[in-house]
Structure formats: C-alpha cells, structure tokens
Design brief:
Strand content: 35-45%
Distance between the termini: 37 Å
Structural class: mainly beta
Number of helices: 16
Radius of gyration: 31 Å
Length: 983
C-alpha cells in the first residue's frame, strides 16, 4: 500500500476532497455537482472513479508527508521511497554530460524507464543527456512550492502513457485553486562541512475563487541556492581507509611545504637517461620550496590549490516560476493554462592555477567528430637546448643533448579562472479546455516544452591557443622530442597580464549547447457506457500527437579535435509520434472490478506498438481487498540512441587488467625498500594503472528495436482494525531488447581498442626498480627476472548502442500504516514501508545466457530498503521521526566479480577494505527528526535535524568520493530551519 493510501482508507472523505483538482464541476444542479465532485482521477488511469483504491498500487505522498520527511526538493522525497533507487544528483553531476540535473529511478531500471509527469502530462527531456546519451526529465525543474501531492505508480503504465513508463510513473500534482499569499524561507547547515549551506525561499500568491468568481489564477516562485564545498573543507574528511589505499594523497597536497598560492614558483627541470631510462630532476634556480629525498633528485614543489570544488560539491542557483489559471466558460466548460519556467546555474571552481608539465607518460587521448576513428593525442613538449628559459645545470643538460622537461606553475590567470559552469533554461506552456457533454467528460490540451542547456568548461588545452603561447614547435634532431619555441610568446619567470591573455587562449572557455523541444496535442473523453448488473461501466478514449526534436551541434573547435580530452556529442534528430488509447472500468460483480486499457503508439521507422493492460480488484471482505495487474510496456529508442551523430568523450575508471598487474608488481617491490625515495615512487605507482581515463566513442545504432516489457503485480490491502491497514504487492518486470550503451568494462561491448606505446615514465619506473634491486642497502630480495611492461596503457575504446537481451527484476512492496488517538495528548501515526528485491538478472545472448546471475544482494542492489516513520500531532506541534534503512550487500557487483572481490580477498574494486568490512557493504540506517510549530493559522516554524545520530560514511572504493555517499551523507548531522507565513 502507499504512503498515503492508508490515509485514504482511514479518512476517505478528506482525501477525495483533496483530489477535486482532477475532477470537473460540470452539471447544473447541486446533486449532480456533488456526484461529479466525488469522482476522482488517479495516476495510471484516465477514468474518474468513486474509490481511490485501484487495481494498480499507487503511492500518494501529500505535501504534509513531504514536510514530515524533512524533504525540500523532489529528489529528497524520492530518497525516502523504498521503490526509488539512487540516481544522478545535481550536486554530484559534474562531468556526466547532464551537469546540474537530477534523475528519478524506480526499481533500479534507470531514468529512461521512469516516466515523470506534471499534472498528468509529459515534460520535455533535459537539454543535455546523461553521459551525452541518456535522455531524461530533470526533476529539479518541477515547481516545489506549488506541489499539492505526488502520486507514484509502481507498475507499468505504457497502455495509458506510452513510452518510458516501464518501471513506473511519478506524477507531480500542483494546487488547482489558491487564494491569498504565503512565503516560506528555509536554510540548511552542516555540523561537519563548514562551507555547506542550502537555502530556499518561495512565495505563492493567487486570487479568484473558481466557484464564486468563475476563475482562479495563482503564481509561485521558488528560489534555491546550494553553496559550494571546496577541497579545503573536505580533503581530510574521507573515510580512514581511503588514505590507507592512497598513501600519497595528503602528502601530494604539499600543505605547509610547497609554495603558497600567488607566490612565484620557478618549477623543476628533468631529463630521461636514454641508456637506462632513469629520470633525473632538479629544482629550477630561485626555488624556495625544494623537496629532497626522491630517487630522481630534488624538485621544486607547490601546494595543490584547495579551492577545487569539483569533487565535493558545486555551487547551484535555481529559480522556478509557475503560473496556473482556471476559468469557467459558460455552464459546462473550463479553460485552464499552466506556465513553468526554470533557470539553473551551476558553477564549480576547477582548482587553479594550472601547470606546464612536460609529458613523459601517456599522452592525453580523445576522439572528436570531424576526425572520425582517429584518436587525437597531446603531450606537453620539452625545452630545447637553446631555449632562453632553459636554465638547467650543465650536468642535467648533458643527459639529452640539452633537451630538458619542465614542470612550471602557470599562475597568471588567477585563482578562479579554471572550472566549469552549466546553465539550463527550461519551460512548459500548456493551454486546455475541459467540459461535459451529457454524462461524458472531455478534455483537450496543447503543450509546448523545451530546454536549452549549455556547458561552459575552462579546463583543457586548445591546441591553436597553446601553439600561440608556446610555439612554433619543432622536433629535436638528436632525441626526436617535440620542443617549444626557443623564444615563446609566453614569458616564463614572470606573472603578467600579457601572459594571462595568452593562457586564456591556450586554456579557453568553450561551450557545448543542446536543445530539446516537445510539442503535444492530446484529447480524451470519459464517461458511462451502460449499466451492468453490478454497476456502471465507464470508458475513456483519447489520442496524443507529439513532435520531438533534439539538437546538440557540439563545439566547433572540439569537433575538429582542437580541445584536448573534449570531443563532446553531436545529435540532430526530429520525429512525430501518434497514439490512440482506450480504457474501461467494469464492475463484473458487486465485489469484482475489471480495469482494461489498450494503447497504440506509432513511431517513425518502427511498426505500431500495441500496449495492453488489464487489472482486477476483488473486495473479498469489507476489510480485505485483492488486486492484480498485467501490462505490456515499451520504450522507443531515443533520438540520441538511434539518431544521427554520436558521443565523443572521456571514459573514467577504465580498468586494464594487464597494466594494473604489471604496474602493481613494480610498485609492491619498491614499497619494500629501506630507501625513502623508492617507497614514495612505489606509493605513487600503486593502483595508478588500475583505473585510467581513456578516449571513448559511443556510436548510435539505427538498427535498434524498441524495448518491450511484461509487467505484473499481485497483492492485497487489509484493514483488520479501524486504526491499522496493511498492504503487500508482488511486482515483476521482464524487459526484452533492452537498449544499452556499451559497458566498456565488458570485453564483448568493445568494438575496437587502441594502446599507447610504452612511455618514458614506464621506462623510468623500471629503471628505478633495477637501481633499487642492485643496491643491497634497499634490503629487498628481488626476483631473478624483474617485473616490467609488456604493453602501453589503453588509449581508446569504441562501442555502439545495442539491444542487450533481457532483464528480469521482481520483488515485494510492503506497507503498514496505523493511527492512534492519544486523547488530550493528540494523535500518533506510525508507518513502515519496505521494498524487498528478489531477482535482478540480465540475459546477454544465447551464448552467454544469464551470465552474471542474480545480482540482488550484490553491490548497489540491496535486498531490502525500508523506511519507518512516526508522526505525533499535539496541539500546535507536529513531531516526526523518519528512519531510512538499506540492507547489507556484497562488495562484488555480480558473481563474476566475486571471483576477485570477496571476503577472502577483503577487497572491493580490487582495493583493500577495512578488516571489519571484509564480508561486504554493511547495512545502513540514518534518522531524521522534525518539529513543526504552528502558533497561529498564519505562522509556521520548523526545525529538522537530518542524520540525527551523526553517522559517518564508511569506505566504499566503488563510489565517486571513496565513501558511501549513496547511503550516508558526507555532511554528517545537519540542521534545517523553516519559517513560513500566510497573508
């Protein structure tokens, strides 16, 4: 049963009154009007009915429920629903391709399998698709201040709504009629992260009474701001095991030893011995921060800039405006209109300044649109023997005939130049009419919606600008190395505006723009067909026509391969779709009701899709209801998946087993040395090649078939006592022809792969190992044949969208709600909701079958997710206690991964985890406590303590920050204060 369905069973009249926004006030006499108002429309059906309970399980979350959760955004509401799974959060969205947006994800089937509606109608996709490829609705663009309630349908609804509704539907319903004005202000602060702050303000105002004045118009504006979290406030707050597995992390920040921000640093020179491959380095003249003790020699160091906001959290500002209007026209017609506009601005300092770092390791590699399958590459060049800034010692210059590498700090452009910014402007305008012809209700509406997203990045090199600052480049005849101009335009050794201008061209701000548009025209008519012996049979018929466009032209410099590590995406697609649907509700007997729906959707290049749904509801006893549904769903390939264009981007975290093993063999020997420099080098090499960033290309596939799904539910609602209701539903989703982007961790998904050659850095590591093993003072007993490299690192991978066999997921939803009267002490409501996953399996193909097995109980797929809440209402006070629970899982992702990551190896992602966590991810719970005080009808004050017991994240090497951010907040205990006033 739902979070508020118990409330419907316990107080049906109040719930029906709240639902009249889905009804119409047609009819001429009072009796007819009363009958009509008693009919409601519930998400998942086009037919108005007298009973809120349908054959499909629908969770209803009221505005009061949202306040009791302590939730301030739609994303936070979904975090408290067991059926919802973690998905992209705007605060962690940098470099996802859809930066600044949040997703909904029911049943763990992804944002593309969850349909999000506003007042029963579709929204346009976010302008920038996730990963440059997955189109989804940004739930942050929904007007929070105007929300009346949310209805979450947890079975398939393609027969009613069409594509995307495989895992379920989230329908956000706004107020229909509002008079007066109210303001609300909220601020959140953290006890652990000083820089964190989340602030909201809203104002809602309306006038006109729909019944008396025949119109109502209201508007709502919601302002939101989240403060950035710089590295300086987070670098020392990761779980302890993170620092064990990254022993040089804190040391490499060089706090207290390197030169401070704004202080000139002349850098270091180095050379690679052509005979031994050993690296030799020295600090440049004038260095005041010399680091000694490294095997290669002394070097000049600087502090890592602590203003980096990329990792822990970007700054976000968001404004959402919403206007709703209703007008009665004549006796039987109502005109209605909505306008929604959202402006999102996300910014993150990328850590400044940058350094000129001559490359001896892997080159930067990337694909781009106009260079096809050719991998673009870039290395920072060397200084030639005659360069005016080559002040290396004669001994160092002699190693390579005067050619030296340079590590130099480029401070000229200042502290806040590098980073990323994302803007998104989205809108939806809707105008419609509804009315009645006799006993039949009709409704039609036209909506136009769209988004424009822009990503601004100031991170990577522009090859033309870099050439202007440091070129022209030549090749040294003696070493074959690329060297910069002997007299470059950029002047090393000074900080100046002239240098800054050159760096702004070498590291420019470039933009990636994308647009989506959605125009829809729909209409439906609903009413009684005839009377059966058990009651009235009702039906609905309707149509939908839509025009969808998606355009991402890409940045021209990036398309030509001029921006390092930035190929971007390029899509250009348009399509018209058409749909017809019908639905009926028929009381077969006094206790048995049938709900049947059928929808035909026609997409270009595909046969018409027929999606049926059938549901049965059986009232066994007044206290016991049985219900079940069967439906068939589908999802058509998006324009990004099957259109024209492709994705040219970076792939982070690529694991190359060959290089990982070879590098770690070298590192583990070096770490045994008694010589400090060897240990530092070994720590730096450890796991360095186990997770690399490589160039990746994802190609669209115009031969894709639509996904198809069979969806079923079976359950009951039981109210044995006036104060208790319990429900349980089994759910089953079997999806075929699943459209999947290539999983580059799977060999079978890689169409082609290229490797870089063995690098100078590789040879230097082998040379350092040989020198250590030749020195008895190291105390290391080395093998007769030293480990080394047989191949370079992977530089690029190419894959394509494909239909990937089948997916099967099933489980149980359980919900229990109770209400107790405490007499003069008020009332107490207690509820428990849980989702118990049973299976999640993927059938790859006939050769591999169900290769990975059932992944329930493995990492990111807990068997149990649950919430417990208790609300105590006493006079002017409401106290709410809310507990979220996530069950234990294994560290491995599946049974194949468990061969390497299991309690015996005590690893996750091939990295050690704390001994106490060898058996897997621990079960986890957090609690929120809220207190609301309403001293008058106009004033309300609220205090929420999130993570009441200040539970700290545990170490999880599979996560972005190395902590359990999907379960526990990095913020620790946080406090939220809300003040609202009605005029």
């Amino acid at each position: 049963m739902s979070l508020a369905l118990a409330a419907a069973l316990l107080g049906h009249a109040s719930f029906a009154a709240a639902q009249d926004g889905q009804s119409s006030t047609n009819g001429t006499d009072s009796a007819d009007k009363t009958t009509e108002l008693s009919r409601i429309e519930v998400t998942g059906s086009n037919i108005r009915r007298l009973d809120v309970e349908t054959a499909s399980p629908v969770q209803v979350i009221s505005k009061q429920d949202i306040e009791n959760m302590g939730a301030r955004t739609l994303l936070q509401v979904l975090d408290n629903l067991p059926a919802a799974r973690p998905a992209q959060q705007d605060s962690r969205s940098l470099f996802t391709g859809s930066d600044g947006a949040s997703q909904a994800n029911l049943r763990g089937l992804g944002a593309q399998g969850t349909l999000v509606l506003l007042n029963g109608r579709r929204l346009s996709y976010y302008g920038a698709p996730a990963g440059f490829q997955t189109q989804f609705v940004n739930i942050d663009a929904i007007p929070a201040a105007a929300i009346e309630r949310m209805e979450v349908l947890t079975d398939g609804a393609s027969a009613v709504y069409g594509t995307d509704a495989v895992a379920g539907v989230i329908n956000v319903i706004t107020k229909r009629n509002y008079q007066g004005a109210e303001v609300s202000v909220t601020t959140d602060k953290s006890s652990r992260i000083d820089s964190y702050g989340e602030h909201q303000a809203s104002i809602t105002a309306g006038f006109g009474d729909l019944d008396k004045d025949r119109y109502n118009v209201y508007a709502s504006v919601n302002l939101y701001r989240r403060d950035a979290i710089p590295l300086s406030d987070f670098y020392d707050k990761r779980p302890d095991q993170y620092y064990v597995n990254n022993p040089n992390y804190l040391k490499n920040l060089r706090l207290g030893t390197g030169s401070k921000p704004g202080v000139f640093n002349p850098g270091s020179y180095f050379a690679i011995n052509p005979r031994t491959g050993a690296r030799v380095q020295e600090a440049a003249p004038g260095c005041n921060n010399v680091l000694t003790g490294e095997a290669a020699g002394p070097r000049c160091i600087w502090q890592t800039w602590m203003n980096n906001e990329i990792d822990a959290g970007a700054e976000t500002e968001r404004m959402t405006g919403y206007v709703n209007a209703h007008f009665l026209v004549g006796e039987n017609t109502e005109a209605f209109a909505e306008l929604t506009y959202t402006d999102i601005d996300l910014r993150a300092n990328g850590g400044t300044p940058r350094s000129f770092g001559t490359t001896t390791g892997n080159p930067t590699s990337w694909f781009s649109r106009n260079t096809g399958n050719t991998v673009n590459q870039f290395r920072y060049p060397f200084l030639g023997p005659n360069n005016e800034y080559n002040h290396a010692s004669p001994e160092l210059r002699a190693i390579n005939g005067g050619v030296v590498g340079l590590q130099y700090l480029l401070q000229d452009v200042g502290d806040n130049y590098f980073g990323q910014r994302n803007t998104d402007k989205s809108y939806r305008g809707l105008f419609g009419l509804r009315g009645a012809i006799g006993d039949w209700n009709w409704e039609t509406a036209f909506a136009t919606a769209g988004t424009h997203s822009v990503t601004y990045q100031t991170i990577n090199v522009n090859l033309d600008g870099f050439r202007k600052a440091f070129g022209p480049f030549t090749v040294d005849p003696g070493t074959g190395r690329v060297i910069i101009s002997d007299h470059p335009a950029y002047k090393f050794g000074e900080i100046s505006e002239a240098n800054a201008a050159l760096l702004r061209e070498a590291y420019p701000t470039f933009d990636i723009q994308s647009w989506t548009r959605l125009h829809t025209l729909d209409g439906k008519i609903e009413g009684p067909l005839f009377n059966l012996p058990a009651g009235e049979m009702r039906a609905a018929f309707g149509f939908n026509i839509s025009r969808e466009t998606f355009y991402t032209p890409g940045n021209e410099d990036a398309a030509n391969g001029l921006i390092t590590q930035q190929g971007g995406s390029w899509f250009d697609g348009k399509r018209n779709t058409y749909a017809l649907f019908a639905e009926t509700v028929a009381p077969l007997t006094e206790k048995l009701e049938l709900d049947a729906a059928l929808r035909v959707d026609k997409y270009p290049n595909f046969s018409a899709n027929l999606a049926p749904k059938i549901g049965l509801k059986y009232q066994v006893l007044p206290q016991l209801l049985l219900r079940g549904t069967y439906s068939e769903g589908f999802r058509a390939p998006s324009l990004a998946e099957a259109g024209t264009g492709g994705v040219f981007a970076q792939l982070g975290g690529f694991r190359d087993e060959l290089r990982c093993a070879e590098t770690n063999a070298i590192a583990n020997l070096l770490r045994q040395s008694r010589r400090g420099g060897d240990v530092d080098l070994g720590n730096s090499l450890l796991n360095a090649d186990c997770s690399r960033t490589v160039a990746r290309m994802t190609q669209p596939n115009q031969d894709l078939e639509p996904e198809k799904a069979k969806i079923a539910t079976l359950g009951f609602v039981f109210e044995p006592l006036d104060w208790l209701s319990v429900s349980a539903d089994y759910w089953f989703i079997y999806r075929r022809n699943e459209i999947a982007a290539p999983d580059f961790s799977k060999e079978q998904d890689i169409v082609s792969m290229a490797r870089s050659p063995i690098t100078d850095s590789d040879r230097a590591a082998q040379a350092a190992l040989a020198a250590m093993c030749a020195d008895p003072a190291s105390g290391v007993s080395c093998p007769g044949t030293l480990p080394g490299y047989s191949a370079g690192n992977v530089a690029s991978v190419v894959g394509q969208y494909k239909n990937r066999g089948r997916t099967l997921v099933d489980g149980f939803d359980i919900d229990a709600r109770s209400r107790f009267s405490l007499g003069e002490w008020g009332s107490l409501n207690v509820g428990v909701a849980a989702t118990i996953a049973r299976r999640k399996e993927a059938y790859l193909d006939d050769e591999n079958g169900w290769y990975y097995g059932n992944t329930v109980g493995y990492h990111s797929n807990p068997r149990l997710r649950a919430t417990i809440n208790a609300d105590w209402n006493y006079r002017q006070f409401t106290t709410s206690f809310f507990v979220n629970y996530v069950g234990h899982t294994k560290w491995a992702w599946d049974r194949v991964d468990a061969e390497d990551n299991n309690p015996e190896t005590c690893t996750a992602g091939f990295l050690p985890v704390p001994e106490a966590q060898c058996d897997g991810v621990p079960s986890w719970w957090t609690a929120n406590l809220s207190l609301a005080w309403r001293p008058t009808d106009k004033l309300n004050v609220g205090l929420t303590v999130k993570n009441l017991f200040d539970r700290q994240p545990f170490y999880d090497p599979n996560s972005f920050l190395g902590d359990s951010s999907d379960y526990a907040s990095i913020l620790g205990r946080s406090y939220s204060v809300t003040v609202g006033y009605k005029f």
